[in-house]
Amino acid sequence: MEWAQESGDDVMAAYVLFRKSNQATAQRNAQKAVSLARAAQRSVGATRRIRALAAQQEAQGHALMGNPRFAEAKFDEAHELAAVPDDSHADEALDLAYCTPTYIEMQRANCLIDFGDPRTAVGMFEAELRSLPPIYRNDQGVYLSRLARAYAVSGEPEQAAAAAGRALSIAIDTESARTMSELSAAGKALQRWHAIPEVAMFTGRLTLMSTANPLDR
Question: Per CATH, which fold does 116-217 belong to?
Answer without folding.
Answer: 1.25.40
